[in-house]
Design brief:
With 509 residues, the chain is an alpha+beta fold. The chain is 41% helix and 23% strand. The chain contains seven helices and 21 strands. One of its GO terms (molecular function) is structural molecule activity.
Length: 509
């Protein structure tokens, strides 16, 4: 049946043309935008994923900026630490030169002070955008990554490190009700710095050798810290007291450094003024061996008193102070983040030496068995001195940490004792400066690695987003041409279908 009201062929052709035009419009949109998924209506799931990933890409761009800023700041700190190391090395050269007697120590001291001031200038100027990493030990965090979990939550990650306090700040103990006594961390051999020649066990007998009997036919050999004094048979008197006097005279005549002996009614009483060296006396008896020795081995302890620091952790703000009453010395060291008991012991040594008291000398010893550091303090003055130990943790956070170069400004090479103290201490300061530069270098290397990773990760994310939403231009171009042909054919079909009712006019002619 033919109808002039309903043209089914035209309706089919029209729907076909509409479909082709819709596909053609979508294809043209893909070509103009370059995306196959340009909006949520194109593919809601893929569009949602791509937008989250695009947000991550923008976040990583900000992270790249953060890493670049952090790397630049670290580069300034590392350069300051390296420059400080070079200046300290120059100071060491001056200190070594000052060990000679026939040099102008005052001029050397002037050079050291100039280099010391230069170090202060370097440390003070080493800032980038207002951030200085070498005048404090504060923690610094650099945003380094965004971590997205499977549930969609996002957390930031940071590279954290502590500044390296290369200032010459002496430091001060904290105060307040929150302080806890840490004196149990320091064990003192005695809190009295004795002015006597040799420390003993309190009974005064551990450095004595008693002689009894007839030594006239005996041969004796005394090995005193590597120096030997020999007596052949017939050299000594038959009377023990007289023989002891002959032995004492011979040993004293040998002028063994720091060692002396007296005869007390037949008892040899040894004494040592060696500050940091324990000395052993061994006696070998031969010949007739008629005389009797009260001991064949005695040990002369070092004169210095020792302050041993327990192998415990040191927290930032922990402060230690040794006060020497007669010498007028208040040696203080307040720990920064990352310090150890080695830093405390060596820091106190430098603080004591900075007082430049010629009668007070120091040494730091390490016991590998106990992993403990010991600060040894010797008193060469004729008067005993009293040491007061103060040790606090800073619960109220108001302590002032000691700079890692504290005591540098106290170097005084104008005297022999000052030059000797400076030689030992400058090595400690150089090592601290080297450690600071190495720490910065390590963190800088980590940031460089992270920067490279973030750059490659961003590229990978962009590539992933492209694979999801970008249009395949070769395929789209081919589809466009096909749709254009289809559009032309559909238009022709619709035109033919619209002409069908006109054929009915022939029936009325």
């Amino acid at each position: 049946m033919s109808s002039i009201l309903t043209n089914n062929s035209a309706m089919v052709a029209l729907q076909t043309l509409k479909s082709i035009n819709g596909n053609l419009a979508k294809t043209q949109g893909e070509i103009s935008t370059g995306k196959s998924v340009a909006s949520a209506s194109d593919n809601a799931a893929v569009w949602s994923i791509s937008k989250l990933m695009e947000a991550d890409v923008e976040g990583f761009k900000a992270i790249s900026d953060s890493l670049a800023l952090g790397e630049s700041t670290l580069a300034v700190g590392k350069q300051a630490a390296e420059t400080t190391t070079d200046l300290l090395t120059q100071i060491k050269g001056k200190v070594v030169a000052a060990q000679e007697e026939n040099v102008d120590r005052q001029k050397i001291q002037t050079d050291i002070e100039a280099l010391t001031n230069q170090i202060s200038s370097v440390v003070g100027a080493a800032q980038f955008n207002g951030k200085n990493l070498v005048n404090n030990s504060d923690e610094t965090s650099i945003l380094s990554s965004l971590d997205r979990a499977s549930d969609g939550s996002v957390q930031s990650s940071s590279i954290s490190f502590n500044g390296q306090n290369l200032t010459q700040t002496a430091g001060s103990l904290g105060t307040g009700t929150g302080l806890t006594d840490l004196s149990s961390n320091v064990t003192a051999s005695s809190t009295t710095l004795s002015s006597t020649a040799v420390r003993d066990d309190g009974a005064g007998t551990n450095a004595d050798i008693a002689l009894t009997g007839d030594f006239s036919g005996d041969s004796l050999s005394f090995d005193i810290g590597g120096t030997t004094v020999n007596f052949a048979a017939g050299d000594l008197s038959a009377t023990a007291a007289t023989a002891a006097g002959q032995i004492a005279d011979a040993i004293n005549a040998a002028q063994i450094e720091g060692i002396s002996v007296t005869n007390n009614a037949g008892t040899l009483e040894f004494a040592s003024t060696r500050a940091f060296e324990q000395t052993t006396v061994n006696v070998t008896q031969g010949g007739a061996a008629a005389g009797t020795l009260g001991a064949t081995t005695v040990t002369l302890d070092q004169r210095a008193e020792s302050f041993t620091f327990s192998a415990v952790n040191v927290n930032a703000g922990d402060g230690y102070q040794l006060s020497l009453a007669n010498a007028g010395i208040n040696a203080t060291y307040v720990a920064s983040a990352g310090d150890t008991m080695e830093d405390v012991a060596k820091g106190l040594k430098i603080a004591v030496d900075s007082a430049n008291n010629g009668d007070i000398t120091t040494n730091v010893a390490y016991d590998e068995t106990t992993n403990q550091y010991t600060l040894e303090i010797d008193n060469a003055n004729a008067t005993d001195d009293t040491v007061t130990i103060t040790a606090n943790d800073d619960a109220n956070d108001n302590a002032v940490a000691s700079g890692r170069l504290a005591g540098l400004e106290g170097f005084d090479v104008t005297t022999k004792s000052g030059a000797e103290a400076a030689l030992a201490n400058v090595e400690t300061l150089i090592q601290r400066s080297v450690d600071a530069a190495a720490e910065f270098g390590s963190v800088q290397g980590r940031i460089e690695t992270q920067t490279d990773f973030v750059s490659k990760l961003t590229d990978s994310l962009k590539s992933g987003i492209g694979s999801l939403v970008d249009a395949d231009m070769e395929e789209t171009s081919a589809r466009l041409q096909a749709l254009q042909v289809q559009q032309q054919l559909a238009t022709q079909s619709l035109s033919i279908a619209n002409q069908a009712p006109q054929q009915l006019l022939a029936l009325f002619r």
